[in-house]
Amino acid sequence: MKIAAQTTAADDRELLRSAAVTAGIIAAGYFRKDLKTWTKENASPVSEADIALDKFLKSALLAARPDYGWLSEESVDNPDRLSHRRVFVVDPIDGTRGFIRGEDSWTVSLAVVEDGVSVASVVYAPARDEMYDAAIGEGAQLNGKPLIRQRNPGRSAPLIPAPGAVHQELQVAGLNYTRGPAYPSLAYRLVQVATGKLDAAVTRRGASDWDVAGAACILAEVGIDFEDVCIGALRFNRPEIRHGALAALVEPSLKAPLHAALVKVYGCPQPQQVDLERLTP
Ligand code: IPD
Ligand code: CA
Ligand code: CA
């Protein structure tokens, strides 16, 4: 296992912030312009902007921290990342569908993961001029101001976006809530739970490390409950990078109905599968 140099999570937060700002400038050269797009094997869209950002981020971040590993949605996965204690986990553009449509809530989502935990991260929405960042033990901020856990006091019922099948289960369970806006970027949806604009956000089974590691440190620093509904605490940079259904929520009272609805819709792995996953580095 390679040992990273003695940079702190706060140093890494600064590095990620500066790389994200430059990535945002590069992305602006493609946003709302004639853009080459295509579809990946898993039917998700990708564009030349995703690839350009990945190239820039990989060279800038690894030049600054040559002893860190690398995991990105747009780079071929290399098992070498498993031999590094610290790894960059990168989604160059999260919410590519929205980016291609010219909507403004797409994000650059970056994290440094140490021993499986997201310890420094940014979720940057350049077209909205919103920079969310955090370092473990140092708190989270939005555009340099501390992010404090809060609920929107003007809202009578919780605001929760979710896939249709999950809404159906929540209604059957009798939860009193309002269906929230489904921003195309999962990272953006998740950090809105930290701002209090949303009361909860959920993911289907199958989100990858790069979709959630950026938001994970921010949510943890704000004190938001963000877990896999079947196995609990999130771990990143494992051989299997896909996750089960996840839920981020402000109010503890939302946990039982949300977790139950997600388990009902997406199920849980068999106990022996969970044990094997826990034993895998
Ligand atoms: C997608 C977005 C979307 C989520 C998908 C992700 P991408 O990421 O975050 O909100 O529902 O699961 O794959 O392809 O835009 O980076
Ligand atoms: Ca993504
Ligand atoms: Ca992406």
Oligomer: single chain
Radius of gyration: 18 Å
Coarse morphology? globular
What is the rounded distance between the termini? 11 Å
**For the record, what CATH class of the largest domain applies?**
Alpha Beta
Please tally the β strands and state the result: 14
pLDDT < 50 runs, ≥5 residues: none
Helix content: 25-40%
CATH fold title of the largest domain: Fructose-1,6-Bisphosphatase, Chain A, domain 1
CATH superfamily of the largest domain: Fructose-1,6-Bisphosphatase, subunit A, domain 1
Quick recap of the structure?
35% of the residues lie in helices and 23% in strands.
Provide structural commentary.
This protein is α+β, with helices and mostly antiparallel strands and 281 residues long. The chain folds into two domains: 9-146, Fructose-1,6-Bisphosphatase, Chain A, domain 1 (2-Layer Sandwich); 159-279, D-Maltodextrin-Binding Protein, domain 2 (3-Layer(aba) Sandwich), CATH 3.40.190.80. 35% of the residues lie in helices and 23% in strands. The chain contains eight helices and 14 strands. The chain has helices at residues 9-28, 48-64, 96-101, 164-172, 186-195, 209-222, 255-266, 271-279; strands spanning 37-39, 45-47, 69-72, 86-94, 107-114, 117-125, 130-135, 139-142, 145-146, 159-160, 178-179, 200-203, 225-228, 246-249. Strands 3-4-5-6-7-8-9 form a seven-stranded mixed β-sheet, with helices on both faces. It has a three-stranded antiparallel β-sheet with strand order 12-14-13, sandwiched between helices. A hairpin with a 4-residue loop joins strand 6 and strand 7. Helix 4 (164-172) crosses helix 7 (255-266). It is globular. The structure holds D-MYO-inositol-1-phosphate and calcium ion (CA) (2 copies).
